[in-house]
Design goal:
Shape: globular
Distance between the termini: 23 Å
Radius of gyration: 20 Å
CATH superfamily of the largest domain: ATP-grasp fold, B domain
Helix content: 25-40%
CATH architecture of the largest domain: 2-Layer Sandwich
Number of helices: 12
Structural class: alpha+beta
Strand order of the largest sheet: 11-10-9-12-13
Number of domains: 3
CATH class of the largest domain: Alpha Beta
Largest sheet: 5 strands, antiparallel
Order of helices and strands: EHEEHEHHHEHHEEHEEEHEHEEHH
Length: about 350
Amino acid sequence: MAKKKIGLLFGGRSGEHEVSITSARAIALALSQSENINKYEILPVYIDKNGVWHGGDRANKILTTGKPLEAESQHHLWRFPPQTKAIDVWFPILHGPNGEDGTVQGLLKLMQVPFVGSGVLGSALSMDKIAMKVAFAAVGLPQVKYVAVNRADIRSSSLFSKLCDRIEATLEYPCFVKPANLGSSVGIAKVRSRNELEAALDNAASFDRRVVVEAGVVAREIECAVLGNDNPQASVLGEITFDSDFYDYETKYTEGLAQLNIPANIPDVVSDRLREMSLQAFAAVDAAGLARVDFFYVEATGKVFINEINTLPGFTATSMYPRLWEATGITFPQLVDRLIELALERSAV
C-alpha cells in the first residue's frame, strides 16, 4: 500500500510562530515512529512570519533545526511549493491568528484535500472569545461574568469613560482584559483599579479590534482533551498549577514556572461533569478532530465555569493535550495517526 503524503503545515503569521515549529517537530517525530513510518510520508510546508510558503529543503531545515526563517518579502505570498499538489492529507499545526481562526481552514477547504482539525466555523468560533462565549451560552454552559467591547469605543474620547463605568458596574476588581482573537495569553492583563483597567483596554485594543473583560475568580485551572468527530471522546483531566499571579505568556512558556498534574486530583462527580461539559463545548462550536477545553473549578463552592476551547492546542510531547491522551491510554504516535484517520473520515461524509 502506498504511503499517504502528509502536508505538515507549520510556522504562520502569529505570535505563536515558534510554538508551532516545536509542535510540528513533535508531530514529525511521531509520524516517523515504527507504527507510522510505513503508513505516512511527511511533506513539510513552512509559512514564514510574512506569510510566504516554503517547501522542500527550506521547510525540512526549519523542522530539523527548530529555528525560524528570516521573513521574506510579500510578493511570494501565494506561490505554494510544488509538492503541495501531491499532498493526501494536510496536518495544520498553526497556533493563533492566521492559522487557528478559520482562515487557513478555508483555504484548505478550497483545495478539496482532507485536513486535520476543525473546519472554518469551528475554528473561527473558537478563536474569537466573544463569539465562543455566545455559543457556550446558547447551550447553557456556565461562565464567569464578562463584558464585550470594541476598539472604536476604547479609542473614543467621548465613550471611553462611560465604557469603563459600565465595566465597573458589571464586574468587580480584579478582572481580566483580553484581546478576543489571540492565544497563548498574549495581551492579557489582570487589573485591580480604574487606572489599570484603562491602560489594559488600550493595550488590548492594539492587538485586536474586539476585546473581552472577564470577572476574576479564585479557582483551580482544569483542562480536558477531546478527540473525535461526530462521536468524540473526552480524556482524563489535568490541572495546571503555578506560583505567578496568573497564567500569563511567561509562565506558560518558561520551563519550570508551571506544572501539569495528570490526572487532576478532583472528586469523581466533578471530573464526570467537566468531561460532559467538554463534549458539549466541542459540539457547541462545531469542532472536529481535536480540541482542549479549559475550566475554572472553585473548590470552596464546587462551582465550575468553562473558560475556553482551543481547536489547535500545543502539540509537543510535553503539552497538556497529548499528555492527557497518554494518561487515557493513547500514545503520542497513536494520537497523530488517529487524527489523520479522523480527517479522512470527515472528508468522506
